[in-house]
């Protein structure tokens, strides 16, 4: 009888015990009431120069968490250290469209020790591994140990395979995402001119660069200039202090650099002649510094018909400088602007015609567009509310709602594959670059921790959250990155895989792989398993090609 009682007690304890942590793909968004199949251990693959992550879903409850540092051990005792965050949840009040939904959505990545989320929010850890270019290829293993409310949870084994091939630290796809010192200062309660705000701006921009993203805007302060005998004499000291580390590759240990930089127009240059002299000095300074970033002049954003004359005048001033400084215009193909743009950047929806009403006034596929432009003109694209809908929430018109669904998207309440799709889509289409108007827009208008709804979408123009000392879990001012920014980097890493395959003679395979993920701007595969399968196939193909390639010979690395 005693043995039977003991067995019954043990069974009851097993039935009432908290469930073990489970590992979920980073391509999923863990939400209340959404069942996801999980695993007991994490298995990741990453190239040298790449970051990969897994989500660890913990038992429900409001307990505080504690995580022991995680270092995976590999060949010859080498280690691969993990970064771990807790996922914070945003309560979405208005869906971005029919692909979104109200309720709790994960987005901000906060310190593990931060207080638990709102009632009903899952407990999820985001565990990221980044392999520098110098990382030894091979298998690395370690174990994640987590305590909840002082009680140890079941350990989670981690295995990571570091591949022999290398991704470049600097993005192969030119891009430029906006960010503003003044928006950051407002959200953090700092004076823009203060050293603390300037240091914080560097932290934000460093976070962008760590995710393969270049920035425009920043302090927006033009270098001081005076004019002597028609020549612009420019004091670049403050500009160089702000921009230099990101242009020369010293901001990050990886050596990553900006792919682009915008000319900061100066009010001190008043006449056309002075402006041209100033632009000439700007370009000459870049050349003297040896900065490789593409310097561009950002003309009037989304010009209306009444702005055409201004854009034409701006283009003439820049070209009068007789320097290689392209003029960027954000507009669809427009005969009124012909000859003014050296970089034409329509919105994403302007490239892909689809049944039903169009959300761009001139939809032209990329290859057709190139045929209508001068040969030197580059074509970029950018996301806007013309993809998800500018009013927010599903529209009552079914045909219109369909037109606003399915697009690659940076919205919080959209599936992760939509957040990640721009990289593979850029490779498949052959577009020359990507623009995005802002990464901290909601900092100007509201508390981003409660609401990032702008321009009809949750998170349009906002990819960060402000970490401040007044907020529980933070001891200092710092940028808080989002899951969406992580997904953008994943997409840019997909782009690097595809470009590397192409360079190794696998262009057909690469295009087929990209097409399985993003058939068009509005036809994106949303099944995480398909994305993972394509990545596995690309990895295997790259390993086979790498050993015999000149890249491998130069790197001195052979697959194991």
Q: What is the end-to-end distance?
A: 58 Å
Percentage of residues assigned to helices: 25-40%
Instruction: Please tell me the overall pLDDT.
Output: 94
Biggest sheet features: 8 strands, parallel
- What is the radius of gyration? 25 Å
Strand portion? 15-25%
Assign an overall shape.
Answer: globular
The number of helical elements comes to 15
What structural category arises from helix and sheet content? alpha/beta
In order across it, which strands form the biggest sheet?
14-13-22-21-20-19-18-17
pLDDT < 50 stretches? 1-16
Q: How many β-strand stretches?
A: 28
Folded structure, characterized:
- With 560 residues, this protein is α/β, with parallel strands linked by helices.
- It is 30% helix and 24% strand.
- The strands form 8 sheets. An 8-stranded parallel β-sheet has the order 14-13-22-21-20-19-18-17.
- Helix 5 (272-289) crosses helix 6 (308-320).
